[in-house]
Design goal:
CATH architecture of chain A: 3-Layer(aba) Sandwich
Number of helices of chain B: 2
Structural class of chain B: alpha+beta
CATH architecture of chain B: Roll
Number of domains of chain B: 1
InterPro entries (chains B, D): Beta-grasp_dom_sf (IPR012675), Mopterin_synth/thiamin_S_b (IPR016155), Urm1 (IPR015221)
Order of helices and strands of chain A: HHEHEHEHEHEEHHHEEHEHE
Largest sheet of chain A: 8 strands, mixed
Radius of gyration of chain A: 19 Å
Radius of gyration of chain B: 13 Å
Structural class of chain A: alpha/beta
Strand content of chain A: 15-25%
Strand order of the largest sheet of chain B: 2-1-7-5-6
CATH class of chain A: Alpha Beta
Distance between the termini of chain A: 38 Å
Number of strands of chain B: 7
Number of domains of chain A: 1
Number of strands of chain A: 10
Helix content of chain A: 25-40%
Protein name (chains B, D): Ubiquitin-related modifier 1
Pathway (chains B, D): tRNA modification; 5-methoxycarbonylmethyl-2-thiouridine-tRNA biosynthesis
Subcellular location (chains B, D): Cytoplasm
Helix content of chain B: 10-25%
Oligomer: heterotetramer
Number of helices of chain A: 11
Largest sheet of chain B: 5 strands, mixed
CATH superfamily of chain B: Beta-grasp domain
CATH superfamily of chain A: NAD(P)-binding Rossmann-like Domain
Pfam family, one (chains B, D): Urm1
Strand order of the largest sheet of chain A: 3-2-1-4-5-6-7-8
Bound molecules: zinc ion
Shape of chain B: globular
């Protein structure tokens, strides 16, 4: 159980003093918002590691970590929250080991299994904000659909080789979702993962750090329904004079979206539809397979 | 009248454009009385800039930009700017970015 | 002693495989360049922590860490390489504790004292590249002057509140230095430190991650004297649609610079001048005090 | 002729400009026969945009931009563009950034 807190302890004032004094952080109400927040980080890899480090440091009340993978030696160059001594551990538990040392105030909950249509709804309902730190399009569609149906905002990051992307999806149920941006999944052969494509550690690390900052902004109320404008950020680690970042203004929510749009839409997703297996997230990246209906 | 456009191929799309992210092109007018629109630019790119015909399907599907690629007009989603009907102006920056999935 | 290596072990191929396959990294020669490099990270705080994590992960051969400070509970929200269990440790040793676990291939050397005009030259001569992760203008002038006189490139980062800056200084002795950018130090009352101004963890963290990437680019030969162009990057964590980054094209080396310019300059700095105490780094941020000469 | 300029006050300098980083200004011509230069813009900023006279010394020292502040003209160091003699054109983006020292 998680009781909302209305005050900070002396230890918390000291620990968080440097961020509390920055006006954009919203001072003590900002810190209390973090303390009373529950966030779910899906994927404790190249994006999840730095995001978890900074969000645990900043004092989010409860952090859930979903990852069914174990630490491999080839992860450690970029997944710096895991170390060589913990190769073979579940990533979620390896992350927990360090994060508890970093900030014992934070309640860490691990889920050492794969997010799937059957378990996702119950897990999401425990949290206020979802960080999508996964590495495949099918998990991105699944996370999106469940977040839309449970009313959760998603901070979404991705990256491969020398580039990364960042967005906030389904912001307070009023911003566009992943399916608003990408109604049709990409052809399966067009997808490059970190495993295939390689990735420079600080490149994916930078996107993870940016995700932590966007999560702080969402949780502390920096973005409101009035000030939030849908965006897609593109980072490149080897571009221009050194590194580059472009932030594009994006479309709003689409009424005809099957995930976040009007309830009357034909083919509108429901928890029942997703849990029936009608949507093949694994192979078709979230395309509805009407044959099973 | 022809228009001068800056093109950006991001998110790994540069691989089918000689591994160059940034290009400057002059799109020639097809008809003096009709202004050039984004659809003309896409045709120009396919006809003149994609060397290997096998690469066309990386960029185009069903006669439009392939799912998973976002098109941006002067840093704004093309959906807010009229998509393929957008009337090009000299100096416009048109960006195409492939979606990244890695993490 | 540090023997240059001409090959990678099987463990190294596995550990670094994901970065090796990215073309900009320069493949095996790139990895060997890192392995044969010695870098000095000055400051194991908000910038140094993420920079050290990613550079140790990436497999730099030897890393020196200079910091005379000890871990305080108010550091941990952003200095995520230190944790609550190591409050009171020297930051350099706290960093070493985790970095050795992260990547035992890396030779970590700690200097738990303050960099000063008397010890700086001997330390710098042991390294190929300097990362300035310090937090005051006087240390920035000292690091700059010693790096220029010992011929070292500096990757320089800084940040406070919601903003950060990034640059590469004295690139291969041909690029501009800190004094080329700032010939006169700022008035003492105009300087805000993290302690006074506060800082958001992911903001300073992002600059540290960028520093790691710039260091990798310098060490792997991505920048050459032909391709390197002097730049100053400005990051803002709360700007525009989400976050912003501008990269400005900067002046070249100034012939009249007293640190990196022509040797015939009046007042040109020398090791003797610096070690005589003629330059008051502490109070005047590197202004020459001709009274003591 | 007057010119329209975009101003950016970065690195914390916005505190003396109403905490706004970005401003659009129209600098009026002082003399029809001489073009406006960056020196005129600096004078315009001091005279019209800095409300509190105490703040002037944050921005100006010895009649020019204070040490520790970099001036950028269209994303380029002013030293490469003629510094205070640079002739302003409508649409120019002039940025001022205070140096950050924290770490
Ligand atoms: Zn939607
Ligand atoms: Zn110099």
């Amino acid at each position: 159980t998680f009781e909302p807190s209305t005050s900070l302890t002396l230890e918390e004032y000291t620990r968080y003093g440097r961020q509390l004094t920055v006006s954009q952080f919203q001072s003590i109400p900002g810190q209390l918002s973090l303390k009373n927040s529950k966030i779910l980080v899906i994927g404790a890899g190249g994006l999840g590691c730095p995001a978890l480090l900074y969000l645990t440091g900043a004092g989010v009340g409860k952090i859930g970590i979903v990852d069914d993978d174990v630490v491999d030696i080839s992860n450690v160059h970029r997944q710096v929250l895991h170390d060589t001594t913990r190769v073979g551990w579940f990533k979620a538990e390896s992350a927990e080991w360090y994060l508890r040392r970093l900030n014992p105030n934070v309640d860490i909950q691990t889920y050492c299994y794969r997010l799937d249509p059957l378990n996702a709804f119950d897990i999401f309902q425990e949290y206020d904000l979802i960080l999508d730190c996964t590495d495949s399009p099918h998990s991105r569609y699944l996370i999106n659909d469940v977040a839309c149906l449970t009313g959760k905002t998603i901070v979404s990051g991705s990256g491969v080789r020398t580039e990364g992307q960042l967005s906030i999806l389904n912001f307070r149920n009023s911003g566009p979702c992943y399916r608003c941006f990408y109604p049709s999944p990409p052809p399966p052969n067009s997808v490059t993962s970190c495993k295939d494509g390689g990735v420079i550690g600080p490149v994916i690390g930078l996107v993870g750090v940016m995700m932590a900052l966007e999560a702080i902004k969402v949780l502390t109320g920096w973005y409101t329904e009035e000030t939030f404008k849908p965006f897609l950020g593109l980072y490149s680690g080897y571009d221009g004079l050194s590194q580059s970042w472009k932030c594009f203004k994006m479309r709003g929510k689409k009424k005809e979206c099957i995930a976040c749009g009007d309830a009357s839409n034909e083919g509108k997703l429901t928890r029942e539809l997703i849990q029936s297996g009608a949507i093949d997230y694994e192979v078709w990246c979230g395309v509805i397979n009407y044959n099973v209906l | 009248m022809s228009v001068n456009i800056k093109l950006e191929f991001l998110g790994g799309l540069d691989v089918i454009f000689n591994s160059e992210r940034y290009h400057k092109v002059t799109v020639p007018s097809t008809n003096a009385s009709t202004p050039l629109i984004l659809r003309d630019l896409i045709k120009y790119i396919v006809d003149n800039m994609i060397k290997d015909p096998k690469d066309i399907e990386v960029f185009i599907e069903n006669d439009t930009i392939r799912p998973g690629i976002l098109t941006l007009i002067n840093d704004t989603d093309w959906e807010l700017e009229g998509e393929e009907e957008y009337v090009l102006e000299s100096g416009d920056v048109i960006s195409f970015t492939s979606t990244l999935h890695g993490g």
